[in-house]
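Researcher: We plan to redesign the surface later, but first we want a full-length starting point. Tokens attached.
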């Protein structure tokens, strides 16, 4: 029996088999992988992932979906369902409890809170092997955007400083029930290795990036005036008259490492 999608949870259930198969193939689950799925819904991805890995942990907020999902998983593998808001789940502690250094994340993320979920995952990147998410295509475009692009912004910089971002393929509205009003896309995120990560204060980086993109038409000297003056910006080899969207992610790290 199909569940009734709830607008309050932003639910759009994936049902088209060929896209389910493409996503599972992209993830490539291995036996005994510790896969954690965010928002399993009716189990379109859950069951094939469970069959491949033998065990799976799912984080689901909607209590009405949990009994049916547990019943569908019976006999396929070991499914643990955590009833919680993923934003309140300590993913690092979860990996530790599951007995692995890093988990693999997957999910069809609710579009209305996709950015907060992405930032939450980045906060726990050291405990994550990779992430395969379905999101609104416009969000995936922003995630992978290069400097100079009209959609390059805070999300682009913060994710690219933490992960390799690889858009995989587009999924049309008709693959869901009910169909969303926009195209979706699947993206792969692979957290950078320790030696690839920047060594600046993460909170300082976040503050610099947030301020720089708060008003896109402002120059850096205006956007960052409460954090850095023009002389400081220039000392990092960056023209204070430029705008944030022209800077590469590593430029923001250089600014964050300047003396306060």
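Model: Full-length starting sequence:
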């Amino acid at each position: 029996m199909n569940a009734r999608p709830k607008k309050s949870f932003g639910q759009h259930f994936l049902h088209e088999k060929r896209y389910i198969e493409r996503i599972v193939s992209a993830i490539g689950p291995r036996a005994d992988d510790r896969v954690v799925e965010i928002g399993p819904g009716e189990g379109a991805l859950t069951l094939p992932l469970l069959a491949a890995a033998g065990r799976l942990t799912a984080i689901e907020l909607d209590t009405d979906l949990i009994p049916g999902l547990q019943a569908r998983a019976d006999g396929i593998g070991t499914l643990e369902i955590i009833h919680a808001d993923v934003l309140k789940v300590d993913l690092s502690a979860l990996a530790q409890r599951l007995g692995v250094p890093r988990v693999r994340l997957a999910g069809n993320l609710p579009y209305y809170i996709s950015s907060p979920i992405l930032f939450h995952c980045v906060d726990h990147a050291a405990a994550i092997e990779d992430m395969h998410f379905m999101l609104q295509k416009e969000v995936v475009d922003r995630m992978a955007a290069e400097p100079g692009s009209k959609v390059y912004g805070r999300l682009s910089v913060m994710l690219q400083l933490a992960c390799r971002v690889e858009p995989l393929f587009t999924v049309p509205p008709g693959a869901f029930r009910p169909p969303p009003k926009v195209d979706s896309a699947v993206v792969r995120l692979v957290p950078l290795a320790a030696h690839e990560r920047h060594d600046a204060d993460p909170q300082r980086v976040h503050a610099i990036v947030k301020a720089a993109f708060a008003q896109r038409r402002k120059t850096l000297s205006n956007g960052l005036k409460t954090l850095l003056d023009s002389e400081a910006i220039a000392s990092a080899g960056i023209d204070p008259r430029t705008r944030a969207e022209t800077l590469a992610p590593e430029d923001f790290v250089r600014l964050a490492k300047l003396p306060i």
